[in-house]
């Protein structure tokens, strides 16, 4: 420990601290622009100059290491003069356009100029003008004359984003911050540069010129997208969500949010929002009042139940719904006598259900995962599925943790990998089994899974060595693994690897409330907190054996299902499809016959349980639009109208209290299967599809966020395959081919991609252009265009 | 043109001969004897460094830091990669000595770097050559090839266990890349911007490995020191100012060029060697150490000797040894305007005071030079300069401020006149 005195305050700080760290620890503010606690030290703005006794000149607090006995003055004459001098320099070329600047009112330069600058400028010469830049549809770089060259954005894209997308070109006052020539800023977490920019140079393009910062109310919320559960500040004006910013939470999202969290609010205000209940009569849609619509629903459900029995009804719920909604929907179904309820629409393998003993979750906290010395990620298109977690794992690698990957594509993870196995989906089980076999050998252990047919490759051995050799290790299964037709086998193998190596294991929750859905029993085999229930059909069975009636909570099956082709066919064959939805979606208009407008997360109170099992509650930040109502209220009234008891709630807190009263979260989280099994032989080598969900197609809200939909990540998907696949099909890279699954086919360009293993065609699912196709990881045919 | 007197680096070099730079000619002059001496006698590394220390050689790039001391900072027992780097990024206005070393005696530099590599236990070295000298870069590459073929460079040098690879790197001409950490950034393929120090290159240098960076002239002096002994080198100069030094004399003299003379030679002697003032004009002022060094008026300069201590006492710096001579026809405001423009162009743009301040200084001086000076401009220049100097990562801001301070101090009347009368006192004659 080192002793230091700051403005007369004595304190001790650990070796390696900077003067800035020391000042922060005693609450002394030192003005700064380029310094940011999560970025490398640049020491270029010079705003944090302070006086250090015995140093002949002022030193930058951000970069000066504390030495024992150091005496620092942050407000001495020397320090103040230095700071005022720097402030004057910063302002001489800064435009005086604060009244029309989006940053006005929340501008660090404005604030510090008041505190540390002079009221008049001595600069009488011409001011610099810098031409605006195009950084894409999310980040506006129109007014680069405002830039003060702190390089926070440059360091962010390189250090946190993972690859350099912004740089500072040219010298002296001709220095300019710009993206690479002709390129936009495409990182999945690019929006953070807007928060980092201390001035109005980089601003939010969708938010630009819409309102002033001081007119906005700040309300806390939680991101409804991926399973991380990023904490949000939602800013509203009138009754409209205007902007979303990160709420710092070191355990979850640190001080960042992904672009999906930040910009999908546009979807909340989309023209597709369903404002009134609607009923289809004779193939035409009519607006209706709530009473009529609900009576229609009750009539439909009672009719189907009378004619075909309760089992003819299926309930499909989105894991992006709140815990209270999911609790209510399963309660409504089961009280009515319907056991067919499931949230796992994109799952294709349910064999683990019988052996499952608790709610599937991450298996550790997010912090524990990020600080594990060795991590194996199985079947995850990380940067699409979990943009922020992927970044956090990159940071972990920088701090010395070993990242291992088993996946179906060699995607750029922008970090150093310890080892990787890139195999076709059909060989995924075998790949993980190789690791298990190596672990068994290292630990001289035994596994219930027959590994005789498995040959351990060098990379599998490296992965096993890494997991067994590390003090703390984690094995996690991503979306590709969870949607994979052999999920139960992958989970079994992960469990065995974890058991033998001492690692933790779990799943990267796909959606904001996947874990919540597991906990409150939105699955056909387990009730609230695992309570015994009469088993019903799972999502796959409900589609494979079409029901006569479907209740859809917050889901569009053509985008949210493992096999959209089959799902849509099942919907179309039903007598009634009741959709509780926030959006007048094209698909729903086609196959549903009644639409009940429900409130998205921003318009209702609720909660999400994130991947680490953390319950995060939130309130609505605005009133529901039109006649939309929170889904829990709709379900409550439906319960009343169906004559069911136990639906007398008057607030969402009562709903929450009820499900919380039935058990505890922590002991209910359990990935361990009662019995494990896996067929480790690679399956027959038919050409299979790798169909992941695109970054901005994951849920109903982001699908309607216009700016996100204008990004490169949201471009119409093209198909990719290894050169060998193209050769076998006799097509040139870039040629338009017909891809066929079942009855559906699409015409799409097929490009060669060296990142893909043989035997695979990669074409995104959940996109309007590909929803006619079948299963995400099912066989696919290539026909020449 | 180049003239050498009692040369160390240029000892015996016939600059008129086309092949004087080649390996044969260098060996004939006694070249590579120092290297042979070290390798034959297996001289301990410490002894090589001690010899350089004893010679009193001070860094010839401008700062004058003792070379032997710098070498001793290198962690010699460090097991991983480490590097020696030569700074031939000669961009200081007025300085043109290193390019003549590459042109006329490149093997002296190569031998010096090999010896440095030996002394500090490094396996590889780089020579970073200024972007605007291309013919010299090509010649240096040729010289490297000669040395490799002759077994002086590469694996198992002269059949011993000692191996050393040396590479030339051609820069793009940015002045800032002469700053040693910016040079390293540029050598790594990044934008040339100085790094914040500490850590210093001796612990975190090229690719984050321990690195020693010396000027071309410093390295080129080493073979003489090892071959003929530290004492002989020291005796060539004066105490605390060992050896000879190359001075690049430019401006209003009859024979501008490089002069290798013993440190301590009176300025008047150097001026005489350079043929005296052109057209018999009167000497007005001299910048004794490159554009960053404060200017000295004629009367002060004529009493100085050309060494670190004397020039420093007079209020300037010996710097890189670029002697810019100005006659009575020079308008000091015009001269300063040109220098201010240079720094305005060459600031790397990283630190606020330098990025913004260099442009401000230039614009104010430009106004004064064009008869648009305002009362208070001199105080403004002074104040802006004070806000820049010592407030930045590297010394470029200081270098930009020194000329402003010294010009306005020694020739204040010219500035005051221009501000008051709307025209300059001296009608500047371009020649």
UniProtKB/TrEMBL annotation, chain A:
Q: Which InterPro entries match?
A: 2Fe-2S_ferredoxin-like_sf, 2Fe-2S_ferredoxin-type, Mopterin_OxRdtase, Mopterin_OxRdtase_4Fe-4S_dom, NADH_UbQ_OxRdtase_75kDa_su_CS, NADH_UbQ_OxRdtase_ferredoxin, NADH_UbQ_OxRdtase_Gsu, NADH_UbQ_OxRdtase_Gsu_4Fe4S-bd
Ranges where the 4Fe-4S Mo/W bis-MGD-type domain occurs = 216-272
What are the residue boundaries of the 2Fe-2S ferredoxin-type domain, all occurrences included?
Answer: 1-78
> What CDD domains does the database record attribute to this sequence?
fer2 (cd00207), MopB_NDH-1_NuoG2 (cd02772)
From the UniProt record, which GO molecular function terms apply? Answer: 2 iron, 2 sulfur cluster binding; 4 iron, 4 sulfur cluster binding; metal ion binding; NADH dehydrogenase (ubiquinone) activity; oxidoreductase activity, acting on NAD(P)H; quinone binding
SMART domains of this UniProt entry?
A: NADH-G_4Fe-4S_3
The similarity comment for this entry is: Belongs to the complex I 75 kDa subunit family.
PANTHER family in alphabetical order:
NADH-UBIQUINONE OXIDOREDUCTASE 75 KDA SUBUNIT, MITOCHONDRIAL, RESPIRATORY NITRATE REDUCTASE
Q: Which NCBIfam families match?
A: NuoG
Q: What does this protein do?
A: NDH-1 shuttles electrons from NADH, via FMN and iron-sulfur (Fe-S) centers, to quinones in the respiratory chain. Couples the redox reaction to proton translocation (for every two electrons transferred, four hydrogen ions are translocated across the cytoplasmic membrane), and thus conserves the redox energy in a proton gradient.
* UniProt protein name: NADH-quinone oxidoreductase
Q: Which organism is it from?
A: Pseudogulbenkiania ferrooxidans 2002
At the highest ranks, the source species' classification is: Bacteria, Pseudomonadati, Pseudomonadota, Betaproteobacteria, Neisseriales
TrEMBL record, chain B:
| Keywords on record | 4Fe-4S, Flavoprotein, FMN, Iron, Iron-sulfur, Metal-binding, NAD, Oxidoreductase, Quinone, Translocase
EC identifiers of the protein: 7.1.1.-
GO MF annotation list: 4 iron, 4 sulfur cluster binding; FMN binding; metal ion binding; NAD binding; NADH dehydrogenase (ubiquinone) activity; oxidoreductase activity; quinone binding
Name the coiled-coil region(s). none
Q: Which cofactor does it need?
A: [4Fe-4S] cluster; FMN
**Catalyzed reactions per annotation:** a quinone + NADH + 5 H(+)(in) = a quinol + NAD(+) + 4 H(+)(out)
Answer whether the UniProt record assigns the keyword Isomerase to this protein: no
Instruction: Please report the name of this protein according to its UniProt entry.
Output: NADH-quinone oxidoreductase subunit F
């Amino acid at each position: 420990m080192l002793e230091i005195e700051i403005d007369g305050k004595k304190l001790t700080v650990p070796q390696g601290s900077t003067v800035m760290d020391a000042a922060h620890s005693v609450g002394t503010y030192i003005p700064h622009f380029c310094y940011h606690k999560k970025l490398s030290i640049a020491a270029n703005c010079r705003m944090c100059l302070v006086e250090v006794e015995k140093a002949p000149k002022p030193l930058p607090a951000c970069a000066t290491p504390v030495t024992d006995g150091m005496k620092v003055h942050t407000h001495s004459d020397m320090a103040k003069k230095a700071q005022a001098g720097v402030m004057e320099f910063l302002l001489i070329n800064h435009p005086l356009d604060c009244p029309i600047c989006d940053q006005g009112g929340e501008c660090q330069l404005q604030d510090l100029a008041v505190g540390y600058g002079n009221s008049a400028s001595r600069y009488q010469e011409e001011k610099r003008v810098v031409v605006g830049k195009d950084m894409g549809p999310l980040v506006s770089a129109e007014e680069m004359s405002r830039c003060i060259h702190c390089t926070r954005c440059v360091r962010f894209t390189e250090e946190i984003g993972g690859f350099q997308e912004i740089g500072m070109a040219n010298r002296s006052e001709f220095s300019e911050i710009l993206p690479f020539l002709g390129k936009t800023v495409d990182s999945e977490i690019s929006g953070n540069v807007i928060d980092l920019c201390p001035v109005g140079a980089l601003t939010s393009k969708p938010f630009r010129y819409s309102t002033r910062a001081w007119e906005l109310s700040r309300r806390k919320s939680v991101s409804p997208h991926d399973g991380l559960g990023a904490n949000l500040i939602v800013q509203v004006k009138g009754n409209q969500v205007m902007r979303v910013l990160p709420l710092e939470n070191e355990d979850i999202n640190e001080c960042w949010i992904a672009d999906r969290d930040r910009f999908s609010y546009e979807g909340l205000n989309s023209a597709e929002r369903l404002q009134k209940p609607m009923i289809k009569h004779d193939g035409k849609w009519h607006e209706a009042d709530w009473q009529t619509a609900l009576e229609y629903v009750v009539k439909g459900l009672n009719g189907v139940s009378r004619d075909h029995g309760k089992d003819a009804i299926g309930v499909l719920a989105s894991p992006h719904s709140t815990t209270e909604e999911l609790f209510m929907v399963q309660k409504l179904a089961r009280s009515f006598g319907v056991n067919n309820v499931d949230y796992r629409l994109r799952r294709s393998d349910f064999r683990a259900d019988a052996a499952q003993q608790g709610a599937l979750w991450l298996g550790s906290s997010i912090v524990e995962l990020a600080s594990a010395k060795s991590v194996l990620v199985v079947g995850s298109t990380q940067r699409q599925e979990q943009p922020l977690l992927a970044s956090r794992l990159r940071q972990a690698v920088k701090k010395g943790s070993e990242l291992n990957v088993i996946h179906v594509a060699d995607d750029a993870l922008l970090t150093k990998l310890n080892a990787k196995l890139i195999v076709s989906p059909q060989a995924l089980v075998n790949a993980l089994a190789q690791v298990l076999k190596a672990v068994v050998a290292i630990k001289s252990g035994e596994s219930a899974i027959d590994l005789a047919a498995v040959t351990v490759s060098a990379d599998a051995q490296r992965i096993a060595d890494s997991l067994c050799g590390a003090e703390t290790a984690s094995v996690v299964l991503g979306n590709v693994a969870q949607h994979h037709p052999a999920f139960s086998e992958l989970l079994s193998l992960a469990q065995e690897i974890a058991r033998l190596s001492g690692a933790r294991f779990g799943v990267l929750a796909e959606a904001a409330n996947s874990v919540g859905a597991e906990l409150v029993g939105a699955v056909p085999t387990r009730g609230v907190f695992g309570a015994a229930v009469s088993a019903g059909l799972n999502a796959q069975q409900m589609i494979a054996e079409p029901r006569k009636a479907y209740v859809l909570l917050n889901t569009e099956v053509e985008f949210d299902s493992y096999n959209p082709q089959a799902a849509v066919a099942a919907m179309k064959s039903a007598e009634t499809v009741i959709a509780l939805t926030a959006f007048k979606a094209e698909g729903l208009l086609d196959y549903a016959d009644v639409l009940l407008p429900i409130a998205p997360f921003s318009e209702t109170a609720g909660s999400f349980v994130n991947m680490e099992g953390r319950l995060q509650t939130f309130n609505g930040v605005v009133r529901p639009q039109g006649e939309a109502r929170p889904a829990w209220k709709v379900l409550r009234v439906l319960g009343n109208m169906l004559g069911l008891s136990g639906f007398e709630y008057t607030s969402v807190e009562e709903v929450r209290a009820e499900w919380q009263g039935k058990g505890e979260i922590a002991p209910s989280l359990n990935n361990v299967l009662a019995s494990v099994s896996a067929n480790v032989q690679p399956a027959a080598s038919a050409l299979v599809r790798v169909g992941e969900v695109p970054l901005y197609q994951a849920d109903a809200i982001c699908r309607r966020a216009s700016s996100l939909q204008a990004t490169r990540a949201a471009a119409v998907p093209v198909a990719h395959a290894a050169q060998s696949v193209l050769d076998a099909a006799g097509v040139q890279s870039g040629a338009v081919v017909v891809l066929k699954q079942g009855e559906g086919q699409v015409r799409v360009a097929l490009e060669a991609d060296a990142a893909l293993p043989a035997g695979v065609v990669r074409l995104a699912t959940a996109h309007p252009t590909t929803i006619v196709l079948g299963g995400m990881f099912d066989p696919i045919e290539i026909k020449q265009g | 043109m180049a003239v050498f007197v009692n040369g160390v680096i240029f000892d015996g070099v016939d600059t008129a001969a086309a092949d004087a730079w080649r390996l044969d000619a260098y060996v004939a002059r006694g070249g590579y004897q120092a290297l042979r001496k070290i390798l034959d006698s297996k001289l301990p590394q410490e002894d090589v460094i001690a010899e350089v220390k004893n010679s009193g050689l001070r860094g010839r790039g401008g700062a004058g830091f003792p070379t032997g001391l710098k070498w001793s900072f290198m962690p010699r027992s460090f097991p991983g990669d480490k590097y020696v780097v030569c700074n031939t990024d000669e961009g200081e206005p007025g300085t043109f000595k290193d390019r003549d070393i590459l042109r006329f005696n490149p093997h002296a530099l190569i031998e010096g770097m090999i010896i440095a590599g030996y002394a500090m236990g490094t396996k590889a070295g780089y020579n970073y050559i200024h972007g605007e000298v291309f013919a010299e870069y090509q010649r240096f590459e040729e010289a490297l090839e000669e040395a490799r073929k002759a077994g002086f460079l590469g694996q198992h040098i002269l059949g011993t266990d000692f191996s050393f690879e040396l590479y030339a790197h051609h820069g793009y001409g940015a002045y800032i890349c002469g700053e040693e950490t910016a040079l390293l950034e540029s050598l790594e393929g990044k934008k040339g911007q100085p790094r914040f120090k500490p850590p210093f290159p001796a612990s975190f240098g090229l690719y984050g490995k321990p690195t020693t960076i010396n000027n071309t002239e410093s390295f080129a002096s080493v073979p003489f020191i090892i071959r003929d002994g530290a004492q002989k080198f020291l005796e060539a100069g004066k105490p605390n100012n060992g050896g000879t030094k190359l001075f690049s004399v430019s401006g209003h003299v009859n024979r501008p060029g490089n002069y290798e003379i013993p440190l301590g030679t009176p300025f008047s002697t150097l001026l005489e060697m350079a043929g005296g003032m052109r057209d018999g004009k009167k000497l007005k002022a001299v910048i004794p150490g490159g554009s960053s060094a404060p200017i000295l008026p004629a009367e002060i300069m004529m009493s100085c000797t050309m060494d670190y201590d004397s020039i420093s006492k007079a209020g300037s710096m010996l710097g890189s040894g670029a002697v810019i001579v100005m006659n009575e026809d020079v308008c000091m405001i015009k001269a300063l305007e040109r220098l201010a423009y240079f720094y305005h162009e060459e600031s790397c743009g990283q630190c606020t005071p330098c990025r913004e301040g260099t442009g401000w200084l230039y614009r104010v001086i430009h106004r004064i030079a064009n008869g648009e000076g305002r009362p208070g401009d001199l105080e403004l220049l002074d104040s802006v300069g004070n806000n820049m100097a010592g407030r930045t990562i590297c010394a470029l801001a200081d270098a930009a401020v020194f000329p402003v301070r010294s010009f306005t101090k020694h020739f204040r009347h010219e500035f005051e006149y221009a501000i008051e009368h709307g025209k300059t006192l001296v009608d500047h004659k371009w020649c």
